[in-house]
Amino acid sequence: MADDATQELSVTPDAVAGGSTHVSDEVVEKIAAAAARAVPGVAELGGDVARFFNTVLDKIGLDQVGDARRGCSAHVTNGAAVINLVIVIDAGRPVPEVTDAVRARVTEAVEAYGLRVDEINIRVDDVAMGSPTSGA
Questions:
Q1: Which residues in the chain land under pLDDT 50?
Q2: Which of 66, 40, 38 is nearest to 52 (CA)?
Q3: Distance of alpha carbon 45 from alpha carbon 85, whole angstroms
Q4: Please, how many CA atoms are within 13 Å of residue 21, restricted to the half-sphere of its CB?
């Protein structure tokens, strides 16, 4: 009669453990950088120094080191993010058009993760002039 002594415990969907959730700054940086790179007119992310070091890393086979967050910093407080981006735009693209599109895309991407975006600061660091033409 050991079966009679077995008790079933019912688990209800309402039984949820308490606690808090914190999304790290690094996660927001990755999301925002990926969204910004996807905007037409954004050639690259990162300032001169970051792009220089990335070129060096590419040459020694460490091309993925730091790429996910390069050109982006974020600070998350109480579910709200402040994001700073450094971008290089394609030559001939109007800065307000590109930066407005970046703000819209980054806001949409970050808010899809349940956060609020309070501010997106963008510094246009350079203009990509395209591939250099080879001379004879």
A1: 51, 56, 65, 132-136
A2: 66
A3: 8
A4: 8
**44 beta partners:** 88
* pLDDT tens for each residue of 101-136: 999 999 999 999 999 999 999 999 999 987 544 444
Question: In the structure encoding, which two tokens stand for residue 66, read together?
Answer: 């730091």
What pLDDT does residue 66 have? 52
**H-state helical runs in 22-121:** 25-37, 48-59, 95-111
Give the contacts of 45 (CB within 8 A, at least 6 positions apart).
33, 36, 37, 70, 71, 72, 85, 86, 87, 88
